[in-house]
Amino acid sequence: MKSLNRTKGKRTQFVIAVLTSFIAGYGFATFFSVTTDTPRKDSRSDDKTIDAAVVPTKLQHGFLENWLRVRDGPAVSCIFEPVALAESEWFHDVTPDPMPNFTLTSAWLKSEAPSAMDAAKDIPPMYESGFDMGGKVNTAQRSYYNQAYLGKTAQTSTWSKDLISKNMQKASNRKPMKYGGDGLKIHDGAIKYKSYIEGKRGIVIGSEDPWVEAIMLHYGAAKILTVEFGEINSETMIPKEFTESFLNGRIDQFDFGITYSSLEHDGLGRYGDVLNPIGDLESMGKLLSIIKPGGLLFIGFPTHDGEDSLVWNAHRIYGKHRLPKLFAGWKLIDVIGKGGGRAYAQHLWILQNANGCN
């Protein structure tokens, strides 16, 4: 397979691998390259992600927000899954906000350029009230990282056909690939909601190597696109590339999405991203446009008995204060994994997109 080739100037080339499942219970990857004739922009230049010929009229008429909410069509009738939350669990009464308290337009316009500075070793005073939600989030713990991926290559920078095939074999045998027993919860969620995956298009947000992708292919996903901070030689895009393609209509909405141990880092600067107290919330807001109305999102992140905390700058730990905002616009239908007394337990939360449903 050809290696990723980026050249300066007017021509940008990136190699894409489409992850496709052709045989029930097994799948493999086919690779092809895509070339786009778009000028490379200096990171200091104006980062305009919307083609001038496509959206200005929508912006002038205030149409973009509505377009993001219903994606070029009237609201559709959605059949929502029955809620399956055990009353004995702390999360049984978590109720998502009806919609984010910011516009979806503002979420799509958040900065996706790499930070020009090293990760901040402490929370800047100007951001304290944002990160601690006005004192509701415990921010006393520290665990500092400076692992800039954004604008660079990922840890596993080449996803070969052999690597994906090996991971799919592990998936077929239900062998842990990451996060031990917590990672195996993805199998349980995929089995329970297989009708939302089999033969469908999915998107993965944040993935250092193709383990989640392999699991979804094993359960019958037709195609998977991964969006990751670091550049990878495969069917992946860095956030800026994805935003450009989606807002310009070159990428259709997806049937389902999955993100595991990723969004809790968004906006903390650990991976080279710009500091943003609501970076995780804005990313979830964008997913309201990316996933089809009524489609599922499988998401995992650290929790600890419903308590909210932030371990700077490693990750957030979600509890009863932030979860309703993280899930705004979604319907919480299920949680795979019981208990949570263990610190940083990562359940698999199953959300159904209510955006665009009547």
Compile the SSE list and pairings.
Blueprint: E1 12-23, E2 26-36, H1 56-60, H2 64-70, H3 104-108, H4 128-131, E3 153-158, H5 161-172, H6 180-192, E4 201-205, H7 211-218, E5 223-227, E6 231-233, E7 236-237, H8 239-247, E8 254-260, H9 279-290, E9 291-300, E10 309-311, E11 315-317, H10 323-326, E12 330-336, E13 348-353
Parallel strand pairs: 3-6, 4-5, 4-8, 5-7, 8-9
Antiparallel strand pairs: 1-2, 1-5, 9-13, 10-11, 12-13
Helix pairs in contact: 5-7
How would you sum up this structure, described in words?
With 358 residues, this protein is an alpha/beta fold. Helix content is 22%, strand content 22%. Strands 1, 2, 4, 5, 7, 8, 9, 12 and 13 form a nine-stranded mixed beta sheet that branches. A two-stranded parallel sheet has the order 3-6. Helix 7 links the parallel strand 4 (201-205) and strand 5. Helix 5 crosses helix 7. The protein starts with 11 loop residues before the first strand and ends in a 5-residue tail after the last strand. The model is unreliable at 1-58 (pLDDT under 50).
